Amino acid sequence: MQVAPPPALPLRIVGTGEYCPRRKVPSSAFDARWNKPQGWTERHSGVAWRAVAGADEYASAMGAAAARAALAAAGRDLTDIDCIISACSVMEQPIPCSAALLQRELGLGASGVPAFDVNATCLSFVVALDLVSTLLASGRYRCVLIVSSELPSAGVNPDDPATAPLFGDGAAAVLVEPADPHSGSSVLAARMETYAEAASACQVRACGTRLRIEDGADAFIAGTRFEMDGKAVYRQAAARLPGFLDRLLGLAGLPLAAIDRIIPHQASGKALAHLQRALALPAARMSGILHDHGNQMAASIPAALHHAIQHQGLARGDTVLLIGSGAGMSFGGMVLRY
């Protein structure tokens, strides 16, 4: 029996913004560090440049700058916001939540505006947007700010050729409101699947409660570094993503040909190429910013969405596919009408 798609949830993205740290590091710097031929790092990572945050460009400061840009684009004021969500892979500090620090950075520390975190690693933004669509539909909130602000440079091993050249720091923000019934803006479908058998393929073991300073300073320090089993991640993506996309599009009641713009997580050059081949995605409709941003973890999808709106002709009424994977290991996506 064929199941009807779920009802669309009226949601309108009214403004987007991003913040890129001032310092830009070219891939040629990694070539020199590791005595590789010129262009080796860029060919292997797909990244030509990435931004690295300075001491004054901490996560909440970058997030606040992106948020102000989104507010300006929407023609809204700080007083319009009635909920703040931080959607990041790594918190600025374990306690309090990053959204509270962002609220304070925006000058709203005495406002009482609810602020909380959503963490699904690189899928945090997609999961937060899905959650917000239901909150707006229920009438709980009217104007929600979602911010993804990431500093992978703080946790990547600088001597690891597999990860150090791949990641970039940065922040992106999206302001969302309930859509007017006549506008057509809506979430058509959202889905997430988690396969925790591969949970150790991407991890940071320290700074939580499992690995403690009492276990030894050296072990603790080593555990603060990001660890990734690239082959395991690739196997999971190759096995799971095609079926996941079919199920997501089935929920939306749309074929891939009906998607006007595809915005994938900017994982790596090889991952994006595999995604395009495995899912038969049309390259002309894919948005990519990996080349001059690097993998910005949870900020990758909203930053790519921002660029699609600002520079790549994404127009009102277009149908958009957000899709990616995250540590856990999870796959997530959303089909929305912009």
CATH class wording of the largest domain: Alpha Beta
Gross geometry: globular
Portion in beta strands: 15-25%
- Briefly note the structural class of the backbone: alpha/beta
- CATH topology title of the largest domain: Peroxisomal Thiolase, Chain A, domain 1
Uncertain regions spanning at least 5 consecutive residues:
none
The first-to-last residue Cα distance is 31 Å
* CATH architecture call of the largest domain: 3-Layer(aba) Sandwich
Helix content: 25-40%
Question: Care to describe what's here?
Answer:
The chain folds into two domains: 12-177, Thiolase/Chalcone synthase (Peroxisomal Thiolase, Chain A, domain 1, 3-Layer(aba) Sandwich); 186-337, Peroxisomal Thiolase, Chain A, domain 1 (3-Layer(aba) Sandwich), CATH 3.40.47. It has ten helices and 13 strands. The protein has helices at residues 28-33, 40-45, 59-74, 98-105, 124-137, 217-223, 230-252, 269-279, 290-293, 300-311, and strands at residues 12-19, 23-26, 49-52, 83-86, 115-117, 144-150, 170-177, 186-194, 202-203, 227-228, 261-264, 319-326, 330-337. A five-stranded mixed sheet has the order 1-7-6-4-5, sandwiched between helices. It has a four-stranded mixed sheet with strand order 8-13-12-11, with helices on both faces. Strand 12 and strand 13 (330-337) form a beta hairpin. Helix 7 (230-252) packs across helix 8 (269-279).
